């Protein structure tokens, strides 16, 4: 995906020396690299392991520039009445301090597949768009822009003033001051939505909770043992 999308500057493609069916797969990478003018180096597994710092690589490693977050200032504002959104509600996903790259990658894959219009992360204490995130997203990060803001509170206030509904998320054991908590199965979606997901350990900050109009909870299927009171954040999302 990184080779075909032209969103990064590409320097070198490393392929594990192979025979048989794997060699045919490697041939496809060689053709893609040639089309982009990227040099290809055939190396041993140990060298690939070192290049990838021990991460799973499946015999392929691409040297390229990082993908940065996009700023909200450079984003095109989708209109509620444009052709794309005439027959459906807009849905933005906002991530507050998601720190695990595997979680972030899984979140991006689900958001892309299920049609989320935009993903926005908080800059502070959030995972960057690393190689691990791209691999965990199965390439979705290579085709799906991810935006970032250094002032999440002001962003949410501005969107609420524009008529968006800001909806937070909590585990079923939590209560939120002055914000109604309802089951996600009872939620009725009748305006553009911003769904806000919190940090793996602490959930949403109190300041962010107080900016939400409603909080959604996923009800469990059994009485839960203490310490297992919520889903993994990417699964819940």
From TrEMBL:
The keyword Mitochondrion applies. Signal peptide: none annotated. The keyword Manganese does not apply. It is found in: Mitochondrion. Its main location: mitochondrion. One of its GO terms (molecular function) is rRNA (guanine) methyltransferase activity. Belongs to the class IV-like SAM-binding methyltransferase superfamily. RNA methyltransferase TrmH family. This is rRNA methyltransferase 1, mitochondrial. It comes from Callipepla squamata (Scaled quail). The lineage of its organism: Eukaryota, Metazoa, Chordata, Craniata, Vertebrata.
């Amino acid at each position: 995906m990184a080779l075909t999308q032209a969103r990064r500057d590409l320097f070198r493609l490393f392929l594990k020396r192979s025979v048989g069916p794997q060699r045919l797969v490697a041939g496809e990478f060689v053709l893609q690299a040639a089309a982009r003018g990227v040099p290809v180096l055939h190396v041993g597994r140990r060298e690939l392991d070192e290049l990838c710092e021990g991460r799973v690589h499946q015999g392929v490693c691409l040297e390229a520039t990082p993908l940065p977050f996009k700023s909200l200032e450079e984003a095109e504002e989708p209109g509620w009445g444009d052709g794309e959104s005439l027959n459906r509600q807009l849905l933005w996903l906002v991530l507050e301090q998601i720190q695990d790259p595997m979680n972030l990658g899984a979140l991006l894959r689900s958001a892309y597949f299920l049609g989320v219009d935009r993903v926005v992360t908080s800059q502070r204490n959030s995972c960057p768009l690393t190689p691990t995130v791209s691999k965990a997203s199965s390439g979705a990060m290579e085709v799906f822009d991810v935006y970032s803001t250094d002032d999440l509170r002001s962003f949410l206030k501005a969107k609420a003033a524009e008529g968006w509904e800001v909806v937070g998320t909590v585990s079923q054991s939590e209560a939120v001051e002055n914000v109604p908590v309802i089951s996600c199965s009872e939620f009725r979606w009748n305006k553009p939505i911003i769904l806000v997901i919190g940090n793996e350990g602490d959930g949403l900050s109190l300041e962010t909770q107080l900016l939400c109009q409603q909080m959604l909870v996923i009800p469990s299927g059994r009485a839960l043992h203490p310490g297992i009171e919520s889903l993994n954040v990417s699964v819940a999302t």
